Amino acid sequence: MSDNKHTNTWNAFLNYIIEFASKRSDFFLLLSGDVSDPESFNAIPEDKKIIKSASASNLILNAAGLAVEGKRPIVVSSSASIVIDGYRKIRDALAIPSLPVSIAVSDGGLSRGSDGTSCNVLEDIALMRSLPNMNIYVPSGKASVISSAENARQLKAPSYFRLSRTDTARINDTLGGVSNGANFLTSGTDVTICACGVMVDQALKAYHILEQRGISAEIVDCCKIKPFPEQLLLSSVRKTGCCVVAEEHSSIGGLSSAVSDCLSKTYPVATRFVAVDDQFVNSGTPDELREYYGLTWKEIVNAAAEVWALRRR
To answer: Which helix (H) or strand (E) element contains residue 291?
Structure first.
């Protein structure tokens, strides 16, 4: 569940790597010049970081070289820069050789809504999910940020972290959640709501409204998109008989597609998506855009009512 304190996953990740830098000799940070708050990294020793406005391709190639030398580099950049401009190098230099480099975007989803279409990259998870060997994390709160980062540190493969600057109610998740790829935040019997990132907060708001309507919702915080926690999702939908997916992403290729792939081949149930349809988004504040494109608790409630009426019995 959540409480009345607010946080965002970018700040949680920032605090984590500042602490982590002092503990690990294999830590190394590569920071793109388009990240708006490089002064926040002043606590990291100079010999453990590179801060420059280099191209995304150069950042990825430098990170790959460090990984070959035994380091565990973390690349921090904007999603528009690293995902769009650097995709070819991510594929060739990190995914194909399966190097343990973590890529973290500080402005995932609609965090930079006012900067326009080119900065609102809502297809990043789909692009990263299509790469073999890539692990994908979309944490919703401080605990899932820490557990996601710790999980990625154990892997001999690249990882992608989609972080957000949007403040949400603090999620009372657990540090062990990513070991299974997801957390159950509520227990329910009527509908499964699978959400990630900032949409977990909206799912929890929907939970209370649905409860008032006599619909018992089970909220699954899916903080790891790839590999997808299929068995955990299946354990829920076998109980509820229906599913709603909520994500701040295109409805194509992200969490919605991962859930569809899982259910269609194993346990088909009525499913609805609360996501952005196949389109680019306009400019506006993040809250304005979420309202305009239907990424709020209201759409989750409506979708849950629809699938509940069609649920598998």
So the answer is: helix 286-292
What are the residues whose beta carbons fall under 8 Å from the beta carbon of 230, sequence distance 6 or more? Answer: 262, 266
Write out the two tokens for 190: 């009527």
Which tokens is 205 given? 């708001």
| DSSP-derived 3-state class of residue 229 | coil
- The mean pLDDT of 117-141, rounded to a whole number, is 95
Q: Which helix H or strand E contains 265, and what residues bound it? A: helix 255-266
Alpha-carbon distance of 141 to 198, in angstroms, equals 9
The pLDDT of residue 38 is 67
**Spatial separation of the C-alpha atoms in residues 101 and 218, rounded to whole Å:** 34
CA pair distance 208, 117, nearest whole angstrom:
33
Contacts of 218 (CB under 8 A, 6+ apart): 184, 186, 187, 188, 189, 191, 192, 193, 236, 239, 240
> Can you tell me the distance from the alpha carbon of 20 to that of 15, in angstroms, rounded to the nearest whole number?
9
- For the stretch 148-187, pLDDT in tens is 999 999 999 999 999 999 888 766 554 444 557 899 999 9
User: Residues 48, 184: contact at Cβ < 8 Å?
Assistant: no
pTM for this model (two decimals): 0.94
Please give the Cα distance from 210 to 244 (Å, whole number): 13
Alpha-carbon distance of 186 to 183, in angstroms, equals 9
> Which residue matches tokens 């279409």?
117
